[in-house]
Amino acid sequence: MPDDLFTRISKRLKDRPWYEKPRLFAMGDLLEIRNQLREKNLHDTEEPPLQEQDPSAADPAVRASRTVDGTFNDLRYPTMGAVGRRFGRNMPLEEVFPDSANLLIPSPRVVSRELMTRHEFQPASILNLLAAAWIQFMVHDWFVHKRSATDTIDLPLAPGDDWSDPAMRIPRTELDPAPPNSKRPPAYVNLNSHWWDSSQIYGGDPVTAGKLRTQVDGRLRIEPTGLLPVDPESGLSFTGFTDNWWIGLAMLHTLFTLEHNHICDLLAHQNPGWTDDQLFTKARLINSALMAKIHTIEWTPAIVPHPIIQLGMQVNWTGLAGEDLQDALAFLDDQEILGGIVGSKADHHTAPYSLTEEFVSVYRMHPLIPDDVAFHSVATGRHLESRRLDEISGKRTPAITERITMPDLFYSFGICHPGAVRLHNYPRLLQNLRRDNGEHLDLAAVDIFRDRERGVPRYNQFRRLLGKSPVKSFDELTDVPEWRKQIKDVYCGDLEKVDLMTGLYAEPLPAGFGFSETAFRIFILMASRRLKSDRLFTDDYRPEVYTEFGLDYIKKNTMLSVLRRHHPQLGPALSGVQNAFHPWKKTTTPSE
After folding, report:
1. Chain segment 404-431, per-residue pLDDT in tens
2. Residues belonging to the active site
């Protein structure tokens, strides 16, 4: 009888999307979707294939640490996921050849002006601005493409365009050389390691990594003021990765540099005989894992607060059994759904591990960034000043950190909202961006072009290749009537030409989603893959590598505890706040 009842319920729910089903059925659907994606949507691009070696030949020093360049995470294939390895694909390789004939059709600049321009700020009221800074902080650990020094392209300007230059010239993405007679699509390398290893803090090359360390007690360089040193050559804070630098990144880089040093101090107290390298190595492992945990079970449920996603992210980290039961029943670690991915057995599934071009595409979330930020005092709530985005970015960033305290900066981010990831919400200043190096570009137009250049399928084909039905009309594409006409006009009525970014920003959002469900398909595949493939989150997530102290530290700490530890002044604003990326309590200004 129970089986019959379950069958009848399943039939009634069959045609409903997973996010509208009861929890038990929704979780089953999500697991099935992820397993299908693991089977069909992981494709290797390396030519020739990675070279295998005997794992026992690996230097013992790399077995219990993260290397600077990401080598030796997989001991059998030491270069897998390392700096300079190719991006993989989530789509079959025959589907990702660039459509050269339509590379500039419609003009990316037209798409930007007509569909992306922010006429009125659309806030994401469920989040605070720290959530926007956080995802950029993470992305800078994950990927960066190399831009060609010689090969450029001019993006056609829009009719009546007020662009100040004769043309918008941008560098092409530099191709990774292919073997002779290769029949594969163009491929590109990642200048970061593909692993979740906090390279944005620690650097991805030996020279940078060495300069960031004090060489004493495992610590990273920090000024007596608690701020990052400033590089006199670049005018930027001195840290592992400073591309697209602004105050939001400066805050998080500083916070987790302080956190690294705090972990070093605790380890040194427990292990007085440890060397500088031993302290640094363990502190990096612990700090990196803590950041991965924060992203998995705090940031993600904040931006996608659907109850199934909250449960799913918890399952990714600790499993249905929960942390306490997992500790007691270690055998559950072999069963990912019960014991969680962290601490389970590593598995690359159907392709060697790498991040993918499609993963890069779905993380185009620039609408989260506002055009200006108001800064307030955490002690009184008093308004201190307001600044445009261009005034708190690049070389101008260190001056802000010297003028406004870190507690006031974090408080200001905690009480204001980022933008919603939707059409007509792209930061205006990023559509007319002048970088410190003199480069002038429309970043929204560049985003559109990059997907086309790298062979990322356009929106409808992207859906098909993820096992979703294509939209059949512009009415189905979006639930905003005025957007339907605008998109149809820009793409001359050709639904198949709609760019991926346009479709993701236009797509109707299920309840409890801060970005599109189509993008989320890539996320549920790659979010678990970043953990499942990583030896230091799976096979070697154990006391012999992290220490008992390290595993306990990761278990007990959250973004809230990190903020309270380094900036206790934030305590009143965080009172009652359950997630650091939710809006904080405002401090009231005393009446005069």
Report:
1. 999 999 999 999 999 999 999 999 999 9
2. 140
Evaluate whether 287 touches 137 at the Cβ level (below 8 Å). no
With CA atoms as reference, report the closest residue to 533 among 83, 294, 299, 194. 194
What CA–CA distance (Å, rounded) separates 409 from 432? 26
Name the nearest CA neighbour of 140 among 88, 69, 203.
203
Instruction: Tell me: pLDDT of 326 over 60.
Output: no
SS3 category, 261: helix
Output the pLDDT for position 13: 65
Q: How many other C-beta atoms are found inside a 10 Å radius of the C-beta of residue 22?
A: 11
Cβ contact 394:246 at 8 Å: yes
Q: Name the residue with tokens 């659309």.
A: 122
Biggest CA–CA distance in the chain, Å, is 77
202 is a domain residue: yes
What single DSSP character describes residue 250? H
Q: What is the pLDDT of residues 533-549, one digit of tens each?
A: 999 999 999 999 999 99
**Per-residue pLDDT averaged across 424-448, rounded?**
95
Nearest to residue 306, comparing CAs of 17, 14, 11, 6?
17
Which pLDDT score, from 0 to 100, does residue 239 have? 95
The tokens for 513 are: 């989603």
Contacts of 568 (CB under 8 A, 6+ apart): none
Residue 177 is given by DSSP the state: P
Is residue 581 in a domain?
Answer: no
Q: How many domains does the chain have?
A: 1
How far is C-alpha 212 from the geometric centre of its chain's CA atoms?
A: 23
Does some domain include residue 155?
yes
pLDDT at 16 over 90: no
Helix then strand then coil, in percent of the chain rounded to 5, is 50, 10, 45
**CB of 38 closer than 8 Å to CB of 353:** no
- C-alpha angle with apex 218: 215 to 221, nearest 5 degrees? 65
Q: Which residues contact 125 (CB under 8 A, 6 or more apart)?
A: 417, 583
Residue 328 pLDDT more than 60? no
Q: Which whole-number Å values give the CA distances from 162 to 62, 113, 205, in the listed order?
A: 54, 11, 41
Q: Write the pLDDT tens digit of every residue in 248-258.
A: 999 999 999 99
Q: What is the pLDDT of residues 30-58, one digit of tens each?
A: 889 999 999 999 999 999 999 999 999 89
d(CA 217, CA 205): 21
- The confidence band for 320, taking pLDDT boundaries of 50, 70 and 90, is low
User: CA–CA separation, 388 vs 438, rounded Å?
Assistant: 19
Report the distance separating Cα 478 and Cα 216, nearest Å: 56
Residue 565 CA to residue 455 CA, distance in Å, equals 45
The residue range of the domain holding 203 is: 43-574
Residue 1 lies in a domain: no
CATH number of the domain within which 381 lies:
1.10.640.10
